[in-house]
Amino acid sequence: SFAHSRMDMSEDTTDDFAKVLHHVLHPPTSNRRDPRAVRLSAATAALIETVHERRRQGGDGSTDDPLPAELFLCALTALQGTLSSASDAADRGVGGQDVTATQQPLLEIIRLTASFVSSHNATLYVGQFTFLGRTLR
User: What is the C-alpha to C-alpha distance for residues 24 and 113, in angstroms, rounded to an integer?
Assistant: First the structure.
């Protein structure tokens, strides 16, 4: 469970992940107009909102920062959803750029969270590795 995972993470790791989240959500002034940074920040904020909604549905109304594992799973699920959207768009011959613009920030979030998840939630990471590999192919 995520509550158990929260206890397993060291204070340093939690602080490191919080710094990563802060940097993504609040890019340096020099990057605030960069479309990639804007999309990454928006996608991260949307995923955090999704994590909070899932917590509310599960009876945990916590609005604490998400754990790396929560954000990783949420991004992976969203990425999987874009693949079926991409397939549908390809069948219609439209929308390739829109899907790519959505997938890039999700891939970046997965990249940013994967090292935290593999280090501190190895069982979860291994359990999702097949799904991750299939999604990335």
Answer: 12
d(CA 109, CA 75): 7
3-class DSSP assignment, residue 58: coil
Distance CA 73, CA 124 (A): 9
Q: Would you state the structure tokens that stand for residue 32, as one six-digit string? A: 């605030």
Asked whether the whole model's pTM tops 0.85, one would answer no
Which of 36, 12, 10 is closest to 24 using CA atoms? 36
CA 63 to chain centre: 16
Let me know: does 35 contact 96? Beta carbons within 8 Å: no
Residue 40 burial (CB < 10 Å; 0-12/13-18/19+)?
buried
Q: Measured between alpha carbons, how far is 56 from 62 in angstroms, rounded to an integer?
A: 7
Q: What is the pLDDT along the chain (137 residues), one digit of tens a residue?
A: 344 344 445 556 678 899 999 999 998 888 888 999 999 999 999 999 999 999 999 888 788 889 998 999 899 989 888 887 666 666 666 656 677 888 999 999 999 998 888 776 666 666 666 666 666 66
